[in-house]
Design a protein that fits this description.
The protein is mostly helical. Helix content is about 75%, strand content about 0%. The protein is elongated and about 80 Å long.
């Protein structure tokens, strides 16, 4: 994320001998512990301005500190008063406490859980509703960080944060959008949540973001995972079809994505075609899906290969009972390779023959692909 970067904590640099290093470290640890206690006392008992200054100082110390220091601040009792500050009508107090909590949560699972247990989620959801874009996107970053801890997911998923994160997909900064997608992806893996966290409103901004990013990026993997989930509902399928370039973007991801994003993209296309072959078959074929699907039967993950074979069967124009299944085609190619090069080299030869078939299919579609490439916009979303 483009937020505070953590640095490892070291004592102040001074000339020392080997014999004095232990004493220097002990002195530094004592000074640090004293500072932690002073800041926690100021945060707990001070007036509003003192609390704001203490929160800012906690953030500064934690940014340059180890995981152990985060735990020491939590043990000193700073989490609850920082959470209370999120409710303040004072914007500076909200921002200072939010940044302090965000830094305390980084790389510290126990602090993540303790922050949610202290009641941080409801005020964070309220911050997501603000017109203040700075606070709104800091709250998004906090939701992202906290949702990475499995025990927090049910609480956040049930809080009403997801629809507000979807709004940020369409109106936030680039970093805000990246954080929102990642947070939604975290929440989508919550098995305890019986109510879907996403609705069809997420489709259009997700398709737009997927268009603009590198298809093999981690960001694309998360976006396609969310689109695959959405493709399982009728509303989501309609939204994918109605989105500008929705099916085309999924086809392009099958062609150019990482193994993970390819698997999710072909899963979404398969969901469409399985729901209503008559409705979606021509729409998928029109976008030139066959070359990428053929290649996926050879190069994808085992799940992606099976999905690609199933989708190819659905896309064929022959009647169901007469169609040549992909598995049968592969067996024929393997048998030919076995006769030509023998059993030892049959698998390698069969793969090469299938790849040649893919290449021939791709050449037949080259004019369409070149035209599409010429009209593509430059990547704008970072490969987060």
């Amino acid at each position: 994320m483009g937020h505070d970067q953590e640095e490892e904590e070291t004592p102040p640099a001074t000339p020392t001998t080997t014999a004095s290093k232990d004493q220097e470290e002990e002195t530094w640890n004592h000074q640090k512990q004293t500072l932690i206690l002073e800041l926690s006392e100021k945060l707990i008992t001070g007036d509003l301005q003192a609390k704001i200054e203490a929160a800012r100082d906690i953030r500064k110390v934690v940014r340059k500190s180890s995981v152990k220091t985060r735990s020491k601040f939590a043990a000193a009792g700073v989490i609850q008063p920082l959470v209370f500050m999120l409710l303040s009508p004072n914007v500076d107090a909200r921002e200072a406490s939010l940044l302090a909590l965000l830094n305390l949560a980084v790389r510290n699972e126990r602090n993540k859980v303790n922050i949610v247990t202290a009641g941080a989620v409801p005020p964070l959801v309220e911050l997501l509703k603000l017109q203040n874009s700075g606070l709104r996107e800091l709250a998004t970053a906090a939701i992202l960080t906290l949702s990475a801890a499995a025990p927090n997911k049910p609480t956040i998923a049930a809080s009403g944060a997801a629809p507000l994160l979807v709004q940020i997909l369409g109106s936030g900064s680039v970093q805000g959008k990246v954080d929102a997608v990642t947070a939604l992806h975290n929440l989508s893996t919550c098995k305890e949540n019986s109510i879907p966290i996403l609705d069809a409103k997420a489709v259009s901004p997700l398709i737009k973001l997927l268009k603009e990013c590198k298809k093999y990026s981690k960001f694309a993997e998360k976006a396609t995972a969310l689109l695959e989930i959405l493709s399982k509902s009728e509303e989501g399928r309609v939204a994918i079809t109605n989105s500008d370039g929705g099916i085309l973007t999924l086809v392009e991801t099958v062609e150019d994505g990482s193994h993970v994003s390819m698997q999710h993209a072909v899963g979404a296309l398969l969901s469409l075609c399985q729901s209503c072959r008559e409705k979606y078959r021509e729409l998928i074929l029109k976008e030139g899906a066959i070359p990428g699907l053929l290649r996926l039967t050879v190069e994808g993950t085992s799940i992606a290969q099976e999905r690609a074979r199933t989708l190819l069967d659905l896309l064929r124009d022959t009647p169901q009972e007469k169609k040549l299944a992909s598995s049968v085609l592969e067996k024929i190619v393997y048998d030919i390779a076995n006769r030509v090069d023998g059993a030892d080299k049959a698998a390698e030869t069969a793969k090469r023959l299938l790849e040649d078939m893919v290449q021939r299919s791709m050449e037949l579609s080259m004019n369409r692909i070149q035209h599409r490439a010429a009209s593509c916009t430059p990547a704008k979303v970072p490969s987060a």
